[in-house]
Amino acid sequence: MRTLIIGGGLSGLALASALEADGHDYILVEARDRFGGRIMTERYGSGYYDMGPAWFWPGQPRIAALIAKLELEKFDQYSKGIQMVEDERGHVHRGRGFASMEGSWRLKGGLDQLTHCLAERLPAMRKRLNAQVAQLAKTDDAITAKLIDSDTVSADRVVLALPPRVAARIDFVPSLPSDAMHAMQGIATWMAGHAKALAVYDRPIWREAGLSGDAVSHIGPMVEVHDASPAEGGPFALFGFVGVPPEGRADAQVLRQNILAQLGHLFGPEASEPQKLYLKDWAFDPHTATDADARPLYAHPTYGMPRAMTGLWDGKLHFAGTEVAPQFGGYIEGALEAAENALKI
Asked: For a 10 Å CB count at each end of the chain, is N or C smaller?
């Protein structure tokens, strides 16, 4: 039985790796020109900076096992020092609150070390980049995927290892039941409405001032800021989640200017002049977000596999991806959980 995995993020790569280890026939296709999905790491000098998910936590056994298997190393999120709070009037207060990410872990080298290692271990004949699926057509004999370049891939079963809302844009022939499509379109894509800004510095000016790099703002544009420096040495970095809705951040140049001004207001004039300012707006990433994901999620949704999305096409069409994980949905642990569950089907 041949399995077609659509989506080369962590879930799709983990599933492909498991099938490879068990000697099964499969092919993994990814629409982007890179593997990793929402895991994306920028590099500046010897530094590494995660522009998608950045943290994992104790009590998440799958990610811990994968890191150990790949001989990678975790480190503690930096949390020493005073937190800053910017109130609704723009006044900055020191020492209020606590380091909200204290106790979380990051990965040395960046989280894309996970996806890079997994992808590199797959045979070239089993993986394809720049392979966006436009249509899935089921016959009695097989399921055929038609790519946007008109190439085709056939398999006996398909696993959609991508956000359900993105999967819902595929043309299914025959059409999926309306309750299945409604369920797919109703699952909010984690992180899809977010934008993340990251400023790189040659010195940790906030640490030198006794600050942790943690800040909360009630005026923005960044609503939450954290230290994003590497485990050892520099370049050092601060990153923040942008709280302005997508329609208010379409002008990236204006947004960058406002972010730099806010960094200077929070951490001093030097902070407004980083060596590099990265900005990744996931709301404008067509392989992550749909129009329904236009606003950021500020609370964690209740994820899992809706009954309407099971047993489709005589049990030959399945879902993976963190949004369908019943226990750790929305986390990178959830991506591994969903892949594990898809493997059992």
From this structure: N
